Amino acid sequence: MSDLAGGFVPLSPPPSSIASSATRNSLPQPRRTPLKPGGTKESRLIRHVDQQLLHIQRRFAKRDPSLGHEGVREMDEEGRMIEQLNDPATEKRLQQSEEWNDVQGYAGFAEAARDVEELIAVIWVSGTPALQVPYLINMALLTTTMIPAFPLAPRPLFRLLGKLDHAFASLLVGRDVSTDEILPGFNTGRGVSGTEKVRIKSLVERTRICVVEVVNRGEFDEDDDLDEPSPEDTDMDGALILDEDDGPQDINVDDTEDDDWNMQVARVYDKTLVELGDSMDGPPIGIRTEARIGT
Q1: pTM score
Q2: CA-CA distance, 113 to 60, in Å (whole number)?
């Protein structure tokens, strides 16, 4: 990832169990004011995010074929499939870059999650709702596409989904749900549109079902996490320094009880579900979870 992304160290669950972790899904401090529409910084950010998003898609397309799973096809905001990597036209588009042959495919979900988390941090630091909402929806769609394509890697999976949950819930109410601070750009009236709320709701429902299916599949990545990037300065309007959090801990998935899994799955997008229920004048949306197959 580019130096523009900055650095951050997401927290990982304690060793006792995944369900007892309640991962602190912190996001970096955003800039104080949104980027100027059409300005140089906004253009640079859009170019960077687009390039890194395409890079992630390329690495996913060239993932280790021995994993034996295919991604879930998802729709973009215009109703187009964003996961058609077996389609010749899509493959041709991805191959147009000279760097295509030098791109190494993902060996597991942990690698993909790290790249996605870094890009989410860049998007969040922008403090610009007009960019944050659509880009984070696309990142969440891509994440849902990738989840079933790899063996389950619990720590990076639930950490990544926790960050997306934190971001969406905060954007829905216009304030950080952890600190209660007003988010940049929301004092001007820009919020999440009704159409965007419907898309987020649909995405949340599909993701929760997808996670249940992957957990029930019972295939786990033995090397389910990677060293996190070290914190460093980021040049998004004023040398913002991201604080270093606690390092990753080990998780023994074999010792995790079914109730623990059910609890962790139930937490997927739980904050977003609450805010969607409030903002759309309806009850929070949920799904029923079941014990893993074969247990």
Answers
A1: 0.72
A2: 11
